[in-house]
Write a structure and sequence with these properties.
Shape: extended
Helix content: 40-55%
Strand order of the largest sheet: 6-5-14-13-12-7-11-10-8-9
Low-confidence stretches: 1-11, 247-272
Structural class: alpha/beta
Number of strands: 17
Strand content: 5-15%
Length: 765
């Protein structure tokens, strides 16, 4: 073809020679090169598109996959834990061991006591055989050992060994290696194996990985350390003041910009000073914010913390709720969660519903002992015959500072508290006030001890450790109730006895109610039901408040109930099923040990005259034995209220004199049996070792009485016969002394412990 020039107005036309091929036409034979070029061009286009898609996908998923791998390493290597969290976990393991030892000791003690209880029940029903009696004695000795061991354990404070920085690094590294080995590597291996053996699985895992990578690219997760979990924020796990970690324990503050003023703004200062616990709060606003955050974190619909007041012992608040009930704060899970979040001691939170507003409550957070000696104050001096039983007496203080002041007149009272809860101390404090009255006398009953006997001769009548005598006293009081009812009707005094110096009231203190015999329990309950109107008032205590221990369901019926450290079931039994939710948390009080006072003498109360029924703790002032003895002697010397006139009118004067003679004769302890004294002398002759075998005792027994203990000298079973007759001699003499296996000696011979011999002698002193 040729080109033609048509002038300057037209562009130059270039004509190419070639062949037009119709795409739809069939390729002709012999025309191979053209289709091959088209295929190559198509392949290049596909490859280019694939490369473009790959770059697009990689650019949008690879950063996310890198972030996912970094997160995996961050998790597996435990980099999300701060050094302080790891330190707390190491110390928590020590705390768990500390707690487990006490739990195991408590379980062993309870198991032994249950076994003893079964044997005691069997003895009451069917009697015991000889081996069962020995078993009961052995269990008693074992229970004492376990009880003493538990007391020693409870007295030991928790003193953890703080880990060093190297130990923290080693802890992190060892657990990180375990996670990599047991989790990460098996997971990657399983993914690779499944993909290799079943390629079709890539159609599922591939898009899933790409989708996750794409999401993480757009929403990268920062690799930071987490806050310390709430369950590790308990006071026992706090670091000592002088403990230092290599890493900073708080987040570093950014350096101030030189161009900005040196003084931070008020908002920045508040953020820097925001406390993490009540102990760190410096103002009422800060404390209210801490409490509000903790309550809302526990899922409660809090409206506001209306008031926050700093107290000598911590903080008191008044809170309102939008929905729900303030009682929910006393639920176990919520209560424990608040204790952890506020970083208080185990029983350091008191919640009292406002009786005037159902949506509100008083919340008290204890950071310190609310009953310091300065707050409780000294025992007030009450001169002899200076009070009337109708007067209000000062016995202590409430934790809000109000005095514990009430009258003893008309009280039919039961106090329930564990051993070490302060029952005897509270009863002695009440009796101390009663013995200062000119129109009341005090009777003392205790089946296993001396009750309020520390007041000595200020006690008008005392019956202790003698069931027959105790029943005789209760019988006399029942007769007196009937006589006073007749007198009251004759005098026209209405429905209650008129207390005066000529007709004094009688306040009967009963210690260890559950230890009374069944007959004595029945008589006591009847006297409590009849005595209030006749000014014969009973104030009793018990370790338990349930029916099976008291004999009848009398506890909830009594007008006044005091609760020291006791079981939850005792709280609900005496105060009703909703008492726990209302804030009567006597189950959180801690009884005293041999070395720590703990919460002994602290009580919750209902029915005290002149005081509202509210779940607040009271502290009863302690009356020491020395103070009681001095006051008792002073009051006895000044003279006690005279019962002659009122008993003569009742026709019971001679009956009372006979009973009084029996009680006074009973106070003289019987002499220790000769066989027990011989055993004690044997220990002294051997320089008081911890134990003596029967073989060692046999020589001393034979030296003391050859005719009696030398009868078996020529027999092969000589020691067995001496041991058998020694046990019989002790039992016949009324001595509670059981033999035991001396397992620390070769052959584990039978013998007697010095501690048991001393305890047996004490019973006769």
């Amino acid at each position: 073809m040729t080109s033609h020039d048509h002038g300057p107005l037209l562009p130059e036309v270039i004509v190419y020679e070639g062949e037009f091929v119709d795409d739809d036409a069939e390729p002709q034979p012999g025309t191979g090169p053209a289709p091959a070029a088209a295929r190559r061009q198509t392949a290049r286009r596909i490859a280019h598109a694939a490369a473009t898609a790959a770059r697009f996908i990689t650019g949008r998923t690879l950063p996310g996959l890198r972030n996912a791998w970094a997160l995996t390493v961050h998790w597996a290597a435990l980099r999300y834990m701060t050094g302080d969290e790891i330190r707390r976990r190491i110390v928590k393991k020590q705390l768990d061991h500390y707690t487990e030892r006490r739990d195991d000791a408590r379980t062993a003690r309870d198991t032994t006591l249950k076994q003893m209880s079964k044997l005691v029940d069997k003895a009451a029903d069917d009697g015991l055989s000889g081996p069962e009696k020995h078993r009961l004695r052995d269990l008693g000795a074992e229970a004492d050992r376990r009880r003493n061991g538990l007391a020693v354990l409870n007295a030991l404070p928790f003193t953890p060994t703080q880990p060093t920085a190297e130990q923290i690094t080693r802890w992190r590294g060892s657990r990180g290696a375990v996670r990599f080995t047991c989790v990460v590597v098996p997971a990657l291996g399983a993914l690779a194996t499944v993909t290799a053996t079943a390629p079709l699985s890539a159609l599922i895992t591939g898009p899933a990985l790409l989708g996750g990578g794409w999401w993480l690219t757009r929403h990268p997760i920062p690799l930071t350390t987490r806050p310390i979990p709430a369950e590790l924020l308990i006071p026992e796990l706090d670091a000592p003041a002088d403990y230092q970690l290599d890493e900073p324990r708080t987040a570093p503050q950014p350096e101030a910009n030189q161009a900005e003023p040196a003084e931070p703004s008020a908002a920045q200062g508040e953020e820097e000073q925001e406390p993490g616990s009540l102990a760190e709060a410096r103002t009422g606003e800060q404390a209210a914010a801490v409490l509000a955050t903790a309550i809302r974190a526990e899922g409660r619909d809090l409206a506001e913390v209306a008031k926050a007041v700093e107290e000598p012992w911590g903080w008191s608040f008044y809170v309102r709720f939008s929905t729900g009930s303030p009682d929910e704060l006393n639920k176990d899970d919520v209560y424990k969660g608040l204790i952890t979040r506020l970083r208080l001691r185990r029983n350091g939170l008191l919640v009292e519903g406002d009786p005037e507003a159902g949506d509100s409550a008083f919340v008290r957070a204890l950071l310190r002992d609310p009953f310091s000696p300065e707050v409780v104050g000294p025992l007030p001096y009450r001169p002899p015959l200076s009070m009337s039983i109708l007067d209000a007496a000062d016995f202590g203080v409430a934790m809000d500072g109000t005095p514990l002041v009430f009258s003893l007149a008309g009280l039919m009272m039961l106090m329930v508290a564990d051993s070490g809860g302060g029952k005897s101390g509270v009863m002695l404090a009440l009796a101390e006030a009663a013995t200062a009255c000119r129109d009341a006398v005090v009777f003392n009953i205790d089946p296993v001890g001396t009750g309020v006997g520390a007041l000595g001769e200020a006690i008008t009548l005392s019956a202790c450790m003698d069931d027959e005598l105790i029943q005789a006293v209760l019988d006399f009081l029942l007769q007196w109730c009937a006589a006073r009812a007749r007198q009251r009707a004759r005098y026209g005094w209405g429905n209650k006895w008129r207390v005066s110096e000529e007709h004094p009231a009688v306040v009967v203190y009963v210690d260890e109610w559950p230890q009374l015999s069944d007959e004595a329990k029945a008589k006591l309950v009847r006297a409590m039901l009849l005595g209030r109107k006749e000014a014969l008032w009973f104030e009793a205590d018990s370790q338990f408040g349930t029916r099976e221990h008291l004999g009848q369901a009398i506890g909830p019926k009594l007008s006044t109930r005091l609760l020291g450290a006791c079981r939850r079931v005792d709280v609900t039994e005496l105060l009703g099923g909703g008492a726990i939710a209302e804030g009567y948390r006597a189950d959180l009080l801690q009884a005293a040990t041999h070395t720590e006072v703990n919460d002994a003498g602290q009580i919750y109360a209902q029915g005290l005259p002149g005081l509202p029924n509210r779940p607040i703790r009271y502290k009863v002032r302690e009356v020491s034995d020395a103070q009681a003895a001095r006051l008792g002697a002073e009051r006895a010397a000044a003279g006690l209220p005279d019962l002659t006139h009122t008993l003569t009118e009742a026709g019971l004067w001679q009956t009372y004199q006979d009973l009084l003679a029996r009680c006074r004769a009973d106070t003289t302890p019987p002499p220790a049996p000769a066989i027990l004294l011989t055993v004690r002398e044997a220990f002294r002759a051997e320089h008081d070792p911890d134990a003596l075998t029967v073989a060692q005792l046999a020589e001393h027994l034979r030296a003391a009485d050859a005719d009696r203990w030398g009868r078996w000298d020529n027999r092969a079973d000589r020691l067995a016969m001496i041991g058998r007759h020694l046990r019989k001699a002790l039992t016949d003499a009324g001595v509670e002394l059981a033999s035991t296996r001396l397992r620390h000696l070769s052959g584990e011979p039978t013998g007697y412990l010095l501690a048991d011999v001393r305890a047996a002698l004490t019973a006769f002193s």
